[in-house]
Amino acid sequence: MSRYGFVGITINTEITTGIEVQKILTTYSHIIMGRMGIPAVEDGSISVITLIVKTTTDELGALTGKLGRLNGVNVKSGLCKV
Asked: One of this protein's Pfam families, by short name (predicted)?
């Protein structure tokens, strides 16, 4: 059963580039309902991406797992109960 949720992503741009993140997000574009990105927060070393998703628990886990394995990337997510 698909539910709405969010994914918060921070990228330490001193360690990794957003290219790897973008490739993964493109693969999962079918579950992404909305996206907001803020590049170069504060001193330019951190970028932030927030996603609104409609997906299953399994597919969300697959997306966040792939993102979380990238060096310098942190991911938090959640799904609505209803």
From this structure: TM1266-like
HEC readout, the chain:
CCEEEEEEEEEECCCCCHHHHHHHHHHCHHHEEEEEEEEEECCCCEEEEEEEEEECHHHHHHHHHHHHCCCCEEEEEEECCC
Write out pLDDT tens, residues 11-61: 998 887 789 999 999 999 999 999 999 987 677 789 999 999 999 999 999
> How far, rounded to the nearest angstrom, does the alpha carbon of residue 72 sit from its chain's CA centroid?
13
Strands 73-79 and 3-12: antiparallel
Encoded tokens for 70: 């990238």
Domain ranges of the chain: 3-79
